[in-house]
Amino acid sequence: MHILGNMPRGTIVRSFLFILICLLVASIATQWYGIYIIQSNKILQRHLRGLNKVEIGSSSWDFTQCTDSNIINTVIDRTEDLRIFEHLCERIYKPLNKETQPELCKSCRYKQPVFMKTKKPFVALASFTGAGNSWTRELLEALTGIYTGSIYGDPAGDFEGSSRCPHRGGVYIIKTHSTHNLTKMKDCQLIGAHTIDYERAIHIIRNPYEAILSTFNLIKGKSKTGFADIETFMSPRWPFYVRRIVNYWARMTEYWTQNFTRPTYVLVYERLKTDTYQELYKISRFLDLDSTYLDLFCAKNCLKPKYHRVDKPDWMNISILYDQQLKQAVNTRIFQLANKVKQKSRDLVPELKNYIQV
Ligand SMILES: *[C@@H]1O[C@H](CO)[C@@H](O)[C@H](O)[C@H]1NC(C)=O
Ligand SMILES: *[C@@H]1O[C@H](CO)[C@@H](O)[C@H](O)[C@H]1NC(C)=O
Ligand SMILES: *[C@@H]1O[C@H](CO)[C@@H](O)[C@H](O)[C@H]1NC(C)=O
After folding, report:
1. Which fold has domain 110-206+261-291?
2. Per-residue pLDDT for 5 more than 60?
3. Domain ranges, ordered by start, for the chain
4. Ligand 1 pocket, residues with Cβ under 6 angstroms
C-alpha cells in the first residue's frame, strides 16, 4: 500500500497492463503448447483416448461433446478452437470421422449445391491446369452450397454451373486458367459480356512438377486409367511439352500474384491436402462465410471425390520422369519467378523454393 501510494498513477496503470498482457500471452502460449505436445506425443495420445476431458491452458475440452450438436453447429471464430477440435475430436479420440460418423453427413447444411438467388461479387478460382482446381471447386460447392462457374463454358456434366455465363447470375466463384479477365464463353457472347470483373481471387498454387505431370496425363491419358502410358513419356512429346508448358505455369503464377491487385487468397494445394480443415477454414474467412465445425466436416468428409486421382503406377515418379535437363528447365523458371514475386508476395518465396528438385 505504502509503495503503491508513492507511485505515480501512470506507472500503476502501466504495470497493471503489463501484467495483464503477460497473463494473456502465457494463457495463449500454454494453449498452443498443450496442443503441440498432444500433436507430437503418441503415448499421450493413447492415454487421452481413455479420458473424457482434457484441460488445455484455460479451456477444457470434453470429448463426449465432440459430436454434440451445439458444438458442431458452432461457428468457428478462432484458429485455436479449430486445432483443438481437429486434433482431439478427429485425430485422437476419433468420434468424428467418416467411418465412425457416416450419419453426420445427413446433417450437412447443404446436401446439394444450388444456383444462388442473389448476386455476389465475382471471385476468381485461378490456377494452372492440374493444380487441383476441380477438387477445390467440389470443396467450395460443399462449403458455400452454391454452384461454381467457369469462364470456359465446359460441358455441364461435371459442374452444373460451368455452362452458364457468370453474368446471368447464380454463380460467383469462377474457375479460370487464364492470365486475364476476358471470356470467350458462348453463353457470355450471347449476352454481350466479354470480361469478368473479379473482386477477389483464390489462387491455387501447386508444385509445377506435379501439376505439369497431372496435366499431361489429362491430355494424353487413356480414358480407362487416366494416365498416359510409359511410351508416351519416353517419346519426345513429354520433354517438349514440359519445356513449353512451364512458361505458362510461370506466367499464371506471376499474373495472379503480381498483376492481379485485388484481395487474393493463395491456396497451397499441398497444404489443402495435408491440412484440409485449416485451409477450408481460412477460405471460409476469406469468403466471409460463417462456417461451423459441421460445415467443415461435411466439406472434408461427405463428398464423393471425383477429382482426386490416386494410385499412380510406380514408374510415374517425378524424379524419374524429369531428367537433369528437364529439371534444370523447371528449376530455372521457379527461381526466376521467386525473384519476381519477392517484392509483393514475400510469403510465396519459400513455398516456391520448396518446389525445386535436385
Ligand atoms: C480487366 O483487366 C484490365 C487490365 O488487365 C483492367 O484494365 C480492366 O479494368 C479489367 N476489367 C474488368 C471488367 O475487370
Ligand atoms: C504483368 O504486368 C507487367 C507490367 O505491366 C507485364 O510486363 C507482364 O507481362 C504482366 N504479366 C502477366 C503474366 O500478364
Ligand atoms: C520416386 O523415386 C525416388 C528415387 O528413385 C524415391 O526416393 C521416391 O520415394 C519415389 N517417390 C515415390 C512417390 O514413389
Report:
1. Rossmann fold (3.40.50)
2. no
3. 110-206+261-291, 208-260+323-358
4. 181, 195, 197
